[in-house]
Fold this sequence. Notes:
Helix content: 25-40%
Oligomer: single chain
Largest sheet: 8 strands, mixed
Structural class: alpha/beta
Strand order of the largest sheet: 5-4-1-6-7-9-8-10
Number of helices: 10
Strand content: 15-25%
Order of helices and strands: HEEHHHEHEHEHEHEHEEHE
Distance between the termini: 32 Å
Low-confidence stretches: none
Mean pLDDT: 94
Amino acid sequence: MNYRHAFHAGNFADLVKHAALRQLLERMQADPQPLQVFDTHAGRGLYDLSGEEAERSGEAKEGVVQLMQASDLPPAFAGLRQAVARLNGGGETALYPGSPMLVAGALRKGDAYLGCELRPQEHSALGEALAGWPAARTACADGYVEVPRRIEPAARTLVLIDPPFEKSDDYERCVQALAKIVRKSPQAVVMIWTPLKDLETFDAFLREAEDAYDRPLLVAEARMRPLTDPMKMNGCALVLANAPAGFEAPLGEICEWTVSRLGQGGKAQVWTAG
């Protein structure tokens, strides 16, 4: 599969992932010590929702457009909604920020961000999107390898592992990256995003992740529909190592609203594995 996120930008999975990411940043930035943030699969950083790809899929209209129009949003979505509104000047939602712009816009003095993107064309666009933030750097590199290599063991660290899952070994490489990161920096907060197609695939991934990380993992699932057709993306999940205390609450708000407002007979759940 040749994955292009422009088709999917601003969809339900982005809402779950990016609302959680902003919540993590807020929690970790409550500590005045500098924070280093890494993104293994950064993408292009900024997406035009009026472009051909987004218009063809229609996923943003069923995702971020609904978010921006909603009158019942829980507090956990506040950071994401504010970032989208700011990017669009308070007007119609025509642009959507990827994780690089969401992080870059929240960096404090002393914080730093590194976004890895392997595709040269996407990496070039990423550099342009982040040009206004000197503390946000990019690398045209394999994030699975580059991020563990770049982490400073003593620094406070947040890592987003968010591959497109277009290759058969992406689940395995997520686990390998997690193992390398927590071995080098045991207190690093790591959030892995995965699609939810069928339980067998997801359960197998969780078993491997538990073996790689010797403490409990926090798991948040947004099942948009019953997991009965493994050929469809039926939802998404977040798996977190070293999640901040009490982070179950905002994850629950995010998943519950997304499933109840945008789903089709699915369910949301947040639980601990391991």
